[in-house]
Amino acid sequence: MKKKFFRGRIILITIFLFFCSALMGEAQAQKEKIGWVGPIYKELSDSLMKGFKDYYKKTYGKDIEITFIRPGGWPVCVDKVRAWKGKPDADIFLGAGAPAHEILKKEGLIVPYKLKEWEVIPDKWQGMKVKDEGYYWACFAPWIVTNLYNEKVLKVLKLPPPKTWKELLNPIYRELIVQTLPYASGTQHEAVEIHLQTFGVKEGWAYNRLLAAQLARFSTGSVDTTHIVSRGEVPIGLAQPQMNAMVARKDGYPVRDLLPDKTILVPEAVAMLKNAPNEANAKIFLDWLFSMAGQKYVLEGGYFTARKDIKFTAWEKEGVAMAKHAREALGVDSFWDLKVGFVNYDLDLAAKRWDEVNRYYEYEIYRKWRELKSSLFLIEEVEGEIAAAKKKGVDVQKAEAKIKEARNLFEFEGQYAQARLTASEARSLLVSGSR
Amino acid sequence: MSRGNVFLSLVLWLILALLVIYPLSFLILESFKIAGTNQFGIKNYLDFFKDPYYLKTFTNTLFLGVLVLLATTLLGLPLAYILARYRLKGKTILTALILLPIVLPAYAGAFALIVFFGKQGTVNLLLLEWGLISKPINFIYGLHGLVFIQTLHLLPFIVLSLSAGFTNIDPSLEEAAEVEGARGFKRFLTITLPLCTPNYLAGAVIVFLWPFTDWLTPLIFGLIDFLPSIAYINIAYHFTDMYRKYIGIVSVVVSSVICVAIFLISKRWVEKKKYTSLSKGTTLEGRIIEPGIFITILSYAYMVFIALLVLLIPTVLGLSAFSRRWVLQPFPTYWTLDNFRLIFLESPLLLKNSFVFSGVALIFGIIFGLPAAYLITRTKVRGKEALDFVITLMLAFPGIAVGVSYLLAFWEGIPLATHWIIMPLSLFVRRLPYFLRMAHASYLQLDISLEEAAEVSGANKLRTFFNISLPLLLKGVFVGVVMFFIMAFQEISTAIFLYRGGWETLPIGIYLNWHRGMEFGIAGAMAFLMIVIIFILLIIISRIGGGILGAAWGSSGGRY
Fold this sequence. Notes:
- The complex is a heterodimer.
- By secondary structure, chain A is α/β, with parallel strands linked by helices.
- Chain A has helices at residues 2-30, 42-60, 74-83, 98-106, 151-156, 186-199, 201-212, 222-230, 243-250, 279-289, 292-300, 312-318, 321-330, 347-352, 354-366, 369-391, 397-413, 416-433; strands at residues 32-37, 64-69, 92-94, 110-111, 124-125, 128-129, 138-150, 177-180, 215-219, 236-241, 255-258, 265-273.
- In chain A, helix 12 (312-318) packs antiparallel against helix 13 (321-330).
- Chain B is mainly α.
- Chain B has a two-stranded antiparallel sheet.
- The interface between A and B is large, with 61 and 55 residues.
């Protein structure tokens, strides 16, 4: 019977498959393993894998199998660890700054481990935590939130690179900027928090509204932003991890780091997961990561290094290729020598209002983007008309008051339609006033 | 009705229940969860339908579907007619070329478009250099770019189904019309085209529903406001915001319902009318015309035009595959084999996984598909229509629906997702309809009297199958096998949800290299490799079973 034949085949193949997987399972059980989960970039994970595999082979004479899962930005990675419900598939949470690790620590998802060379990492930098006093996490690759620009394209457009956050609002940069959505990128969200905590909540949102009007488009992630800027499709990109410029330059893209006036430190950190299946290997990895050898692979992978005692010029002499690019990108001999303006970042506040900030941006700015732009452009038009009329000696008092009202409605209330209407009223006041 | 057949039917239903019904019900259940509580309710759906933004994303997606359908039909109609009706030299190569976009998923082509047509892409740079323009032209960022790339990818579906339609038409019907005085164009409009409707609809449904499943391509162009893209972002980036995740899942359920509804409506519409003809006085080739010199030149010109369009993307991908640092220059200047070295030496896993997963999925497909086709065409078992229906319905479900539902159902429920077998299983479920249609069409073309003759002569069912049926089915089944493999090989929308470290396939590699890598050349090399591998398979189909391929998409009488 045909069906019997097929039934037989199904059974045979099923048995065969289980046999195969059992064999694979057995073979895997005999290998040394370690698993990482985290948001770090592919170049770094590739570099660390190579370095750690070599180190493990040299030191223990065995091969180690490394799996790395990158489900997305750090919020997605934290969610993944949560989804494992105490039985993690990985041993190490690799990457992400303080907010992620503080959340992991609070929810009991990571365990402390005192590194062999614990003292070689600074405790704090300009007031910001670089490692956890309870040994839960430590920064292995620090960077600051910055912006990028494509120097070739800006040169062709004959524009100077913007130096501060406020300078980005200059109309000469209109439609020349790209950023991603705060809920799609941890870095972008942190940039919005920088604005809120630097300028104050009301002013911070006003700033973001004005900034949104400068955008050519929204990208779909911070690396997407880097790509777009590298390819020159849009010359200025916001909210970038600082090392993206260094790596893009290494690949031959004419990209430059654009240090804003106020930013935050992101101490890309590492921690050991609770109930890690390969705890011993995890500890070996952690100690290696902070050793001089391990830190070299961090730099090779396109991230800056965290050890206090590293000098790029010294490494350059030793033949570490990336050290030259790092020194040129940073302008100093060690990351910790950087002179940047920092905002006093309240981590707890940021974590508390995380969803709220995301939602506000999505609903009030992203979804109303067209409305926002048309409203602002009309306000600017009318302001120009009023200024021109004032020069000619026309009485613009009423119109000025009205357009100020329109501005207020736009920037602080977020009432784009109302602001547009008020701007039109200002215009008609101007016209009737000039008669 | 033999007991054996009933048993077979039960086994098949059991497998379907586990792999289709169970995970989808999980998905639906999850969409009713209320964030912040342990309760269920319809709040998420109410919020979704009340929100004008989601309505906008839905209409955007619908509009995109309509535009792509129009574009593919306009471009594909002449092509299908030429391929089906005219005797021209070099048809095999041109057919293979025109089928090439099937192997080129839209997301891979999108990168190539940016490199070629972007603001700092080849065309703009050349035009600027030659002083023909002063500012870059926006060729692709917007709906137009999206329509272009999706049209290119989906063109073969329309061409195949229409050419099958043209081939299947009984010439006597056309000849009768011509005898009555309706010649040329009039005959084409009033007789030929309407008779193709069932075949056309088969391809048209796939084309129209595609934008509901393709979440990645809009994102590459920076367009977020499409239903599948916003669903993906909401689900993948929800972090602690469970409400966002549930809304994402609601979006997925809603798009699935819409897709299924459209699918059913078109099926119903086709079945209402009768398209079968009494006589089967036609060869497999259908009616062939010897074109005059003017038509011949036009036909070749048109085919070459389409071929050039189609070849543009693989060429750009090829150029970037063999180079690095191709940026702000019209053409690459730094050539290297580094990208391929990286793929073959440092991540051969991608290739291995792609072949293994697609291969295993194929084995599942054959084991399931052949008995299913037999059951549907040769037996009278109750529920066989429903079986056919459920399997084919999987064509309508967006990949994101399958991916998310599998993640929900097989992580917490039955822990299949912790094992790599989930990857081929999900491929099998999604691509099974492609194989089933081939097997089904082949069985239909196999006259039952041949099998009956064998049985009357004393051969039992098994012997009949091996000595009579299988050799005759082989051509069609083989085409089905290759078709399944091609579509499984390039699958990404579901795989991206289910993969874990070590299970990455070539398409996932392309996505990851775009999403988190810097050097586009690597993604280009992977895409180029994928194209080359599948193109070779396509040539094989083209040589062996071009007619069967068309027939399968047509399916006699408009049956799905």
